[in-house]
């Protein structure tokens, strides 16, 4: 029996179906093959990928209601109180809350750059206290951090204003291994804050730096470490900045810039 010819329209449909199948087969990858990620979405493309940063937000809010605990002496190359209450603005805005908010803003920025961030305290509560200065210092090494930064607000005479960066001085048996890298880290953080529009402290020599051999957080550190007094909470102009969300964002931006430039050389 003679088979009638296939209509032209059906032949065109068959050709299109065949072409579509070929295109689909061309996209199938061999077993075990992996698709290369897009460069812009790859975590490895971020500047701080693989880096761990430890942030110490300073004094806990509840230290003032746990005086027995924080007054206990701990050995950090010398005997020091476990912790202190911190300071506040003249209107009562606590240093603990200021540093907590800056720390969280800094954490967000560092994570966006690819870093893993660990914090010495995870609450800002009147029910909590500590940790002690020695534990804060050892924290960076405990979480395998590349650097640790401790955030504070100063409580100096109201005429003083501006930030300063504290690096560890030499305390034999304690800080010798981190002395030089901490010095470089201090310069990078100092430059980051200047670039963010902040001014060097008018105290401590007026250069925005200080060196201390008596601070447990610095003495007990085993990774490059600095402590930053971001401003004087007793100074009216500094206090206005430190209680402002936008200004705290600038602090976080300057600190993140300094950390990045120290780590990515």
List key phrases describing it.
single chain, 265 residues, alpha/beta, six-stranded mixed β-sheet, 8 helices, 37% helix, 15% strand, globular, disordered N terminus
Strand content: 15-25%
Principal-axis shape equals: globular
In helices, the fraction of residues equals 25-40%
Q: Let me know the largest β-sheet.
A: 6 strands, mixed
Strand order of the largest sheet: 4-1-5-8-6-7
- CA-based gyration radius: 27 Å
The total beta strand count reads: 8
Helix-strand topology string: HEHEEHEHEEHEHEHH
Distance between the termini: 83 Å
Give unreliable regions as ranges.
1-41
Q: What do the pLDDT scores average to?
A: 89
- Helix/strand-derived category reads alpha/beta
Total of DSSP H or I helical runs spanning 4+ residues: 8
Structure notes:
By secondary structure, the protein is of the alpha/beta class. It is built from 8 helices and 8 strands. The chain has helices spanning 8-27, 67-70, 95-112, 133-142, 179-195, 216-219, 236-242, 245-263; strands spanning 52-56, 73-75, 79-81, 116-119, 147-154, 164-168, 209-212, 225-232. Strands 4-1-5-8-6-7 form a 6-stranded mixed β-sheet, sandwiched between helices. A two-stranded antiparallel sheet has the order 2-3. β6, α5 (179-195) and β7 form a beta-alpha-beta unit. α3 crosses α8 and α5 (179-195) crosses α8. The longest helix has 20 residues, at 8-27. The chain starts with 7 loop residues before the first helix and ends with a helix. Residues 1-41 have low confidence and may be disordered.
């Amino acid at each position: 029996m003679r088979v009638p010819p296939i209509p032209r329209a059906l032949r065109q449909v068959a050709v299109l179906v065949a072409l579509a199948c070929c295109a689909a087969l061309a996209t199938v990858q061999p077993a075990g093959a992996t698709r290369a990620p897009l460069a812009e979405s790859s975590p490895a493309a971020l500047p701080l990928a693989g880096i761990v940063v430890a942030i110490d937000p300073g004094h806990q809010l509840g230290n003032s209601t746990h005086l027995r605990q924080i007054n206990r002496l701990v050995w950090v190359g010398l005997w020091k109180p476990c912790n202190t209450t911190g300071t506040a603005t003249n209107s009562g805005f606590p240093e603990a809350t200021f540093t907590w908010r800056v720390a969280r803003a800094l954490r967000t920025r560092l994570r966006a750059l690819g870093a893993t961030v660990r914090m010495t305290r995870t609450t800002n509560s009147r029910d909590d206290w500590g940790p002690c200065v020695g534990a804060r210092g050892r924290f960076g090494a405990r979480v395998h951090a590349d650097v640790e930064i401790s955030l504070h607000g100063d409580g100096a005479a109201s005429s003083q204003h501006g930030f300063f960066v504290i690096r560890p001085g030499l305390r034999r048996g304690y800080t010798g291994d981190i002395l030089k890298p901490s010095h470089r880290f201090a310069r990078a953080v100092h430059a980051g804050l200047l670039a963010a529009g902040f001014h060097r402290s008018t105290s401590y020599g007026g250069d925005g730096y200080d060196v201390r051999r008596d601070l447990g957080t610095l003495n007990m550190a085993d990774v490059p470490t600095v402590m930053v007094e971001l401003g004087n909470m007793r100074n009216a102009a500094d206090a206005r900045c430190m209680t402002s969300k936008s200004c705290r964002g600038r602090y976080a931006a300057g600190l993140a810039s300094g950390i990045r430039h120290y780590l990515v050389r």
